[in-house]
Amino acid sequence: MADGSTASKRGGDDKVGAQTPVELIRQRETVLSGRVLAAKREADELIIDARRQAVAIIETTTEESAETARERARVLADEAEVDVAEMRSAAEAEAKALSDSITSRIPTAVDYIVQSVVGK
Fold it and tell me: What value, to the nearest 5°, has the Cα angle with vertex 110 and ends 105 and 116?
């Protein structure tokens, strides 16, 4: 330590002791800059992956909702067909009842017309 070298005073090797504080700071900045750049790349990759996953989720849910809508439409169409069949059956039954009623009243109507014409 009597020779006045910086390395001897610090107890380190001569190579590190030969670097100035500015050089040490630059070296450390370079290391940190590399780490920051690597972290940024990793973050960018995570963002890209998250976006891909979001697109996949949207596509899946879109397909699933479309299938659900198609299935619901099929169910509603089936229900509508049942309703139409029931209405048709009820209308046919009502028409038959009216026809039977008219048929059963024809003799009465004929008698009424004849009495009106003959004047009895």
Answer: 125
**∠ CA(25), CA(27), CA(30), 5° rounding?**
110
Q: Residue 68 belongs to what H/E stretch?
A: helix 21-118
User: What pLDDT, on the 0 to 100 scale, is given for residue 75?
Assistant: 97
Tell me how far apart the alpha carbons of residues 64 and 54 are, in angstroms, rounded to a whole number.
Answer: 15
End-to-end CA distance of the chain: 156
Q: Confidence class of residue 119 from pLDDT cuts 50, 70 and 90?
A: confident
Q: In a 10 Å sphere around its CB, with 0-12 CB exposed, 13-18 middle and 19+ buried, how is residue 17 labelled? A: middle
Predicted confidence (pLDDT) per residue in 25-43, tens digit: 999 999 999 999 999 999 9
